[in-house]
Amino acid sequence: MPRLIDHGIRPVYSSEALQTHYVTHGGLVPFTFPVDLTYEQFARLAEHNLEMAGVYVTVRPR
C-alpha cells in the first residue's frame, strides 16, 4: 500500500475483507481494490507497475 500512496492512490479497503479473501481463496485469486482512477493516476500506475510486485493494472467497464 505505501507504493500506491506514493503514486497518489489511496485505496479504501477492509483489512478484515482482505484476510477473509485470503483464507477463502488461499492466495490463488487476486484481491481487487475497488478504486476509480483518474486517467493520470492510471497512466502513472501503468508506467510504474513493474516496481510493484503483485500489482496488475486492468480496466473493467462500469
DSSP summary, beta strand count: 0
Label the structural class.
Answer: mainly alpha
Q: Looking at the structure, what is the overall shape?
A: globular
Helix content: 40-55%
Order of helices and strands: HHH
Low-confidence stretches: none
Any idea what the radius of gyration is?
Answer: 12 Å
Mean pLDDT across all residues, rounded? 81
Query: Count of DSSP helices?
Result: 3
The biggest sheet, with number of strands, parallel, antiparallel or mixed sense and barrel status, is: none
Tell me the β content: under 5%
Count of the separate structural domains: 1
Measured between the Cα atoms of the first and last residue, the distance is 24 Å
What this model shows, in words?
With 62 residues, the chain is mostly helical. It has one domain. It is 42% helix and 0% strand. It is built from three helices and no strands. The chain is globular, with a radius of gyration of 12 Å.
Features:
62 residues; 0% strand; mainly alpha
TL;DR of this structure?
It contains 3 helices and no strands. It has helices spanning 2-6, 15-25, 39-48.
What is this structure's SSE topology?
Blueprint: H1 2-6, H2 15-25, H3 39-48
